[in-house]
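Data deposition worksheet. Section B asks for the primary sequence of the deposited chain exactly as it was used as input, without tags or linkers unless they were present during the calculation. Section C holds the resulting structure in C-alpha cell form. Section D is free text for depositor observations; keep each observation to a single sentence. Incomplete worksheets are returned to the depositor.
Section A, Depositor: J.P.
Section B:
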Amino acid sequence: MFDRWLPALIAVAALLPVWPAGAQTEPATAPSQVVAPATLERVTFAEAVKRATEHNPTVGEATQAILRAQALLDQSKSVFRPSLYGNVGTVVLDAARGFDGNVTQPRTQSAFNATLSYPILAAAQWAAKNQASDRVGIARISAQETRRQVALTAAQSYLAVIAAQRQREIAIRNLDTARALEEYARARLEAGKGSRLNHVRSTQARAAADGELELAELLVRRGQEALGVSMFADGPVDADGDAQLQPAAPPASDAWLTQRPDVRLATAQMQAADRVVRDSWKSWLPTGTASFTPQHVTPAGFFEPANTWRAVFQLQIPLYDATLQPAKRINIADLETSRLRLGAVKLQARAELRLAQESVARSEQIVAASRLSAESATEALRISEVAYRAGATTNIEVVQAQQTARNAEILLALAEDRLRQARLDLLLALGQFPQ
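Section C:
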C-alpha cells in the first residue's frame, strides 16, 4: 500500500525546499482546527491478528457454514435409523353397515396404528452419508482459509501503521532539524552576520517540513482506522511495537503444501468429487424397506378384528432411469474441474514460495544498503551543519544535505516495510501464518 503514496511523498519533499523564495510572498492561510483524537487502544501484532480472527463477522459466517454442513450430515445419517409414525383416525358413516342383523361396519369407528420402518438396503443413501461427511471437512478447511484471509488483512493493516509511524518519526526529526536551522539563520540575521536569503531558505525548509509532518500524521490515522476495521473494533487502533515475523526455514520437500489451507481445501474438494463419482454405480442398486404396522380398531367390525398387525418387505429395483447417466457425467466433469483447480493451486503455491524466498533475500540486502546510505547522508548533514555554522558555506548546502538525508531515511523505511511484507508473505506461502 505504501509503495503507491510514498514515492509521491519523496518527490514532493524533494521539490518543496528548492522552490523560489517568491513562492512565499502570498499570505499563509490560517490552519484549520484539528480535533485531537482520544487515547487510542494499543495492541501488539499477535493481539491484532487474534482479535481479528475472533471477532470478524466473516469468520462467524464460516463457522455457521460448518454447523450447516454438520446438520446435513446428521440428516443423512437418518438412513441408519428406523422411522416411527403414529396414526389416529375416526370414520363416521350415515348409518351402520351390515346384513342379516350383523353389523359389519359400525357407524362410528376409530383406528389407532403405528408404522415402524427401516431401510434394509439403501446403498445410495449410505453413500450420501460419506459424501455429507466430506462436506463437513470442506467447510472446516474453508473456515481456516477464511481465517487466514482475515488474519492477513489484520497483519497488513498493522504493518501499514508501523510504516506510517516510521514516516512520522522521519518527518519529526526533519522538522526539528529545519527549526534549528531556521532559528540559527534568524539569530544570525538579527545579529547582522547572516543574510536574508539564508533566513528565507531556512523558513521555506521549515514550512515544508511542517506540511510533511501533517501528511505523515494523516497517513498514521488512516492506518489506525484500517487496523480498527480489520479487528472489528469500535474505533481506530494503534500498533504497539514491531511485528515479530520469524523467518521460516526453507522446506526440504513438498510437505509444507499440506499446511496451506487453500491447498488442503482444493485437495478435499477433489477427493469429495472423486467419492461422488465412485459412488455413482450405487444408484443402480435396489432399495429395500421393511415395515411393521400394528393396529387397534374400536369398535371392532364383523370382518375386522380389534387388534391386527401387518409386516411388509419391499424391494425396489431401478430398471430404467434416464437421469442417472447424465448425473454421472456431471459428477465426472466436476471431478476433472476440481483436479485442474488443485493443480493450479499447487502451482501458484510453489511460485509464491519461490518469490517470497527471493523477496526476503533481496529485501535484506536492500535494507542493508539503504541503512548505509541513510547513515552516510546523516553524517553528511552533520558535516554540512558544522561547516555552515563555521561560516565556510551557505545554508543552501545544509538544505540540500537535509533533503538528501530525509529521502535516504524514507527509502530505508520503505525497504524495511518491504522486508516485513516479504517475511509475512513467506510465512503465508509456507502455511505458517496464522499460527
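Section D:
Residues 1-32 have pLDDT under 50 and may be disordered.
The longest helix spans residues 123-190.
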